[in-house]
Design brief:
Blueprint (H helix, E strand, L loop, with lengths): L2 H21 L4 H17 L7 H11 L11 H5 L2 H5 L4 E8 L2 E7 L2 H16 L5 H8 L4 E2 L3 E3 L3 E7 L2 E10 L1
Antiparallel strand pairs: 1-2, 1-6, 3-4, 4-5, 5-6
Helix pairs in contact: 2-3
């Protein structure tokens, strides 16, 4: 793995660790509380931790959250399916419907585009039949009064009560 790929993998790993915490019900406050416990134990044993980085490493490789749970190490992450999904060339679909914002990562632009059109179709079908959508399904882009779509963007004003926008961005 070249240096640039390694740097990207390390950044993706840092994002993975944050997502791991969220997926397992932990917060940054939980992390800090666990690290404070280590500090208290170190002080009672007269061991002095020299840096926050050192404290974090002690926690990450020796303690973890309640019950000892913690994300896989970097080497395990590199060999996992998660890393292959987190690789370079990833795309993020941002869906904004009124005040609800949802983001979803995709490994290819095509997959993100298909999901965007699926969500647009769902909005379309709230006031039209699914058969009516078929005239748009094969188009690369469309611009109308109530909705439009292109390769990386779409919007819908089909329902005056709910305006929706989509944007696909490449994550580097």
């Amino acid at each position: 793995m070249d240096e640039i790929s390694l740097q990207r993998a390390r950044k993706a790993y840092e994002r993975f660790k944050l997502q791991w915490m969220i997926d397992h019900g932990f917060t940054l406050s939980d992390l800090i509380a666990c690290m404070e416990d280590i500090v208290c134990e170190d002080l009672s044993g007269s061991k002095v931790c020299t840096s926050i980085q050192s404290l974090f490493a002690d926690w990450e490789y020796g303690v973890g959250f309640a019950g000892g749970s913690v994300w896989p190490c970097f080497e395990e992450y590199l060999q996992s399916d998660v890393h292959s999904k987190d690789g370079a060339g990833k795309y993020l679909l941002i869906s904004v419907c009124e005040r609800d914002i949802v983001t979803e990562p995709f490994s290819t632009l095509q997959a993100a585009h298909e999901q965007m059109l699926s969500e647009l179709k769902e909005e379309f079908c709230k006031g039209n039949s699914a058969d009516d959508w078929e005239q748009y399904a094969s188009l690369k882009s469309y611009v109308g009064d109530d909705f439009c779509f292109a390769e990386k963007t779409a919007w819908s004003n089909l329902d005056d009560d709910c305006n929706c926008d989509w944007l696909i961005v490449e994550i580097s």
